[in-house]
């Protein structure tokens, strides 16, 4: 054991025997670094450890609503390209750009949660009794069929305006059922605000689409 004779009595008592001043300083630095590293790792891992799981309502909603939105983006851009009425074309463009942005947000959630963007689970499996919400052929609520999309892609002018309004009206009504399902199931502070924004926007567009169909002399599907 080495005792530093230069130390006063109090310092000899408080300093561990055999430790020099330099060793104590080095030990203190290492301890501080360890604490900082632990805090950093806790900050990095805490969001992952508390994130929604792969079979959660939040993850299911993000995946299914992203798929749902992508169809709306496609239909909106078809109307913008092939429609005639300036108001309907503008709504189509607004829906496409808004929902494409929201797809990016939801994909960001899944990435942050370290979850895959796709799943083998059936659509709406994240909702209790979700199978009953599906259309007879297994499509999610409001999704247009392949034949519907083919008709829209082949239409132009006023015919495209009418069909777009009809299909998007049905699409939004189905989307609101999905939004309500996640709002009933989740208290996530990222999911709920976006879902509420979606609901408000789509409800407003539903009313606008109904009015436009009246102006165009057509009925909902």
Strand and helix layout:
Layout: H1 9-14, H2 21-49, H3 57-82, H4 86-112, H5 146-154, H6 157-185, H7 191-215
Helix pairs in contact: 3-4, 3-6, 5-6, 6-7
What brief labels describe this structure?
transmembrane; 221 residues; Ferritin-like; mainly alpha; elongated; 2 domains; 68% helix; Ferritin
In the CATH classification, which architecture of the largest domain applies? Up-down Bundle
Structural class category: mainly alpha
| Number of helices in the DSSP assignment | 7
Domain tally: 2
Q: What is the CATH level 1 assignment of the largest domain?
A: Mainly Alpha
Q: Can you identify the CATH superfamily of the largest domain?
A: Ferritin, core subunit, four-helix bundle
* CATH fold node name of the largest domain: Ferritin
Largest pleated sheet: none
CA(first)-CA(last) distance: 92 Å
Multimeric state = single chain
